[in-house]
């Protein structure tokens, strides 16, 4: 067999391996949505397809085929006992697939997978016109998926690890300060900090109507008197330096005009204030991302369908994209807005980098 034919077979296998991943990702979405992972995780022993179908009140034949996909993908453990195929979850699988309060829980992106992939229908027009689509184009499901993506790690680490890594911020918030979370999404971080620091005031800003609806609904059902949520198109960030702390979690790279936002952050922040910038840990160029990040192809794909699309959703959008805000770019933009101190915080995260930026 010729070398050329071997290379063709290998390349074809590589291409269809990507398709396998896409199909299995869809099955992960279904496993989460239908409660299949939860039922497996709750079981005290491996289950047959019949037992899982009964536990979830689903049709056995469909459950069986789903289980076969998951076992073939090596996501579920499989064994044969008394002639029956039985399926179970490893400790790691339970953490990632079935435990929402575990920091490693990963179902958020799979929750919003249908809405993300549906945007493929809109992409040809975007490639032709240059205009993308904002986050609300992914619907309420998209906002909920983002919430589920970031909540588990933040719940475990924001108060315990991230804020204490900043210079004096915990004491500041304990004594009474004003904090704005720009790009607050569904408001989970705002509400968690508001509960932890009752002497301080917290304001979340976001332009996603779906996210704000979720944030306001959660706030309405809580007793917190020191938090509120605002659409900056209705009430913009103040320009009087009245905030002591500003946070931005994984949102600057999504913005159509990020420099304008960073300029507004500086004007809103006290001259002795603190800006916590959390964004995707990226290299300065494609080669660097390909070398250092095994998920680079995934993140560039997410960028086309979501992050860069949002960043190009208005004329003249900056289009930074998912991997478009490396430390060098973030520092350059911060200094252009008038910030003078830029420090990377010693926070360990699989995807994000954490910076404390000060005037």
Could you characterize what this model shows?
By secondary structure, the chain is α/β, with parallel strands linked by helices. It has 2 domains: 3-99, Arc Repressor Mutant, subunit A (Orthogonal Bundle), CATH 1.10.10.10; 116-358, Rossmann fold (3-Layer(aba) Sandwich). Helix content is 51%, strand content 15%. The chain is built from 16 helices and 9 strands. The chain has helices spanning 3-33, 36-42, 49-56, 60-72, 91-98, 107-111, 113-118, 123-129, 139-165, 169-175, 188-196, 209-220, 258-268, 286-292, 296-311, 327-336, and strands at 77-81, 84-88, 178-182, 201-205, 227-230, 243-249, 269-280, 341-344, 352-358. Strands 5-4-3-6-7-9-8 form a 7-stranded mixed sheet, with helices on both faces. Strands 1-2 form a two-stranded antiparallel sheet. β3 (178-182), α11 (188-196) and β4 (201-205) form a beta-alpha-beta unit. The longest helix has 31 residues, at 3-33. The model has no long low-confidence stretch (mean pLDDT 96).
Describe this structure in a few short sentences.
With 359 residues, the protein is an alpha/beta fold.
Please write out the topology.
Elements: H1 3-33, H2 36-42, H3 49-56, H4 60-72, E1 77-81, E2 84-88, H5 91-98, H6 107-111, H7 113-118, H8 123-129, H9 139-165, H10 169-175, E3 178-182, H11 188-196, E4 201-205, H12 209-220, E5 227-230, E6 243-249, H13 258-268, E7 269-280, H14 286-292, H15 296-311, H16 327-336, E8 341-344, E9 352-358
Parallel strand pairs: 3-4, 3-6, 4-5, 6-7
Antiparallel strand pairs: 1-2, 7-9, 8-9
């Amino acid at each position: 067999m010729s070398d050329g034919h071997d290379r063709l077979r290998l390349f074809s296998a590589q291409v269809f391996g990507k398709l396998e991943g896409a199909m299995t990702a869809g099955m992960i979405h279904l496993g989460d949505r239908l409660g299949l992972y939860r039922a497996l995780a709750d079981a005290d022993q491996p289950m047959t397809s019949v037992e899982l179908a009964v536990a979830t009140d689903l049709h056995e034949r469909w459950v069986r085929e789903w289980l076969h996909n998951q076992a073939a993908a090596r996501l579920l453990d499989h064994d044969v006992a008394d002639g029956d195929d039985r399926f179970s979850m490893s400790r790691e699988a339970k953490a990632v697939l079935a435990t929402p309060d575990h920091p490693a829980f990963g179902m958020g992106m799979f929750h919003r997978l249908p809405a993300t992939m549906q945007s493929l229908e809109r992409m040809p027009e975007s490639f032709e016109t240059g205009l993308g689509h904002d986050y609300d184009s992914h619907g309420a499901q998209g906002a909920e998926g983002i919430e589920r993506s970031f909540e588990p790690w933040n719940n475990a680490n924001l108060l315990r690890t991230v804020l204490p890594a900043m210079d004096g911020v915990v004491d500041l918030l304990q004594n009474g300060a004003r904090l704005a979370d720009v790009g607050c999404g569904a408001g989970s971080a705002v509400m968690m900090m508001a509960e932890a620091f009752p002497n301080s005031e917290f304001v979340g800003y976001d332009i996603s109507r779906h996210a704000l609806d979720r944030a306001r609904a959660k706030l309405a059902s809580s007793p917190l008197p020191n938090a509120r949520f605002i659409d900056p198109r209705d009430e913009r960030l103040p320009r009087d330096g009245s905030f002591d702390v500003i946070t931005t979690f994984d949102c600057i790279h999504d913005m159509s005009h990020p420099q304008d936002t960073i300029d507004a952050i500086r004007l809103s922040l006290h001259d002795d204030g603190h800006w916590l910038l959390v964004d995707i840990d990226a290299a300065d160029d494609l080669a660097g991302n390909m070398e250092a990040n095994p998920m680079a192809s995934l993140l560039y794909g997410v960028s086309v369908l979501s992050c860069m699309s949002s960043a190009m959703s208005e004329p003249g959008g900056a289009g930074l994209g998912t991997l478009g805000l490396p430390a060098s770019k973030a520092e350059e933009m911060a200094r252009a807005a008038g910030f003078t101190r830029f420090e990377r915080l010693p926070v360990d995260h699989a995807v994000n980098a954490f910076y404390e930026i000060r005037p």
